[in-house]
Design a protein that fits this description.
31% of the residues lie in helices and 22% in strands. With 284 residues, it is of the alpha/beta class. Monomer.
């Protein structure tokens, strides 16, 4: 309990455009990886909850998909997922990118958050000091409550941000067990790790056309299906002699408990990003 005998708990949502570093920030706050990351926009496709527990305090952080102008039904549903995460939370954190000028997309997202929101200018390690100061000045025009220069990658400024969030968490009951860091199901987490590493290995070739789902779970044996939209994408994901899948499998197993046996299969599912039933099967 806190010094006055009360317990505080609440929700803090991270929102922003794609690729501003929300997932990296969540991982930095928690001190461990609970959300996949990549330089590719729209890496996060679901709400990801990470739980920070301290004596007398529990904060549930919600990572969200980047809000953008959708081109597919998947994109529209990702926006809906992010918007839904803004309802009924105790703290809203708007994340901006220090390396990119404040644009219409940022202002659009800023209009969705309450004036009490905290504003993070992230990636300050990747921008000159003058650029960071200009970005902070531009962000001040959004009329939010407080502003924080942060590098989620190095940890700079994360502590100050976290303490500001802590002061805004209301009195409430403990929501999750002490040892729970995320509510992401294991099978979903493995599928996300596979997609993360596919994005890393295939880079810009087929990022938005890839979806992953675990179809068999008999631990330590896991079968994961990789979906692409076109036949021409299949050899890119497999690689010459299966090289891409082998590399991805090696990288994912390194993040799983010892003894895990991961099978990866590639399937063509034409136009899955725009078909409601396909999206529902994938949990979008």
């Amino acid at each position: 309990m806190t010094g006055d005998g009360t317990y505080r708990s609440g929700f803090a949502t991270l929102v922003g455009r794609p690729n501003v570093g929300k997932s990296t920030l969540l991982n930095a706050v928690l001190g461990q990886k609970v959300s996949i990351t990549s330089p590719v926009a729209q890496t996060t496709r679901n709400q990801v909850r990470g739980v920070l527990t301290r004596p007398g305090l529990q904060i549930v952080f919600v990572d969200t998909p980047g809000i953008h102008k959708p081109r597919t039904l998947l994109g529209a549903r990702l926006n809906d997922t992010a918007n839904d995460a803004l309802a009924g939370v105790d703290v809203t954190v708007l994340v901006l990118d220090a390396t990119q000028p404040l644009g219409r997309g940022d202002r659009f997202v800023a209009d969705l958050v309450p004036p009490s929101a905290l504003c993070v200018v992230n990636k300050v390690d990747a921008a000159p000091r003058r650029v960071v100061l200009d970005q902070l000045q531009a962000a001040a025009g959004l009329g939010l409550e407080e502003y924080f220069p942060v590098s989620a990658r190095t940890g700079e400024g994360v502590g100050a941000l976290l303490e500001a969030i802590v002061t805004r968490v209301p009195e409430g009951p403990q929501l999750y067990p002490d040892d729970m860091v995320t509510d992401v199901p294991e099978a979903h987490w493995v599928a996300e790790l596979v997609r993360e590493q596919l994005l890393a290995v295939t880079r810009e070739e087929v990022p938005h056309s890839i979806a992953c789902r675990v179809t068999e779970w008999e631990w330590p044996r896991v079968r994961c299906e990789v979906l692409v939209e076109r036949e021409s994408q299949k050899p890119i994901v497999i690689g010459r002699g299966g090289s891409v899948l082998k590399e991805v499998g090696t990288r994912v197993r390194a993040q799983l408990p010892p003894g895990a046996y991961l099978e990866l299969f590639v399937k063509v599912d034409p136009g899955w990003q725009s078909r409601p039933k396909a999206l529902e099967r994938l949990g979008y």
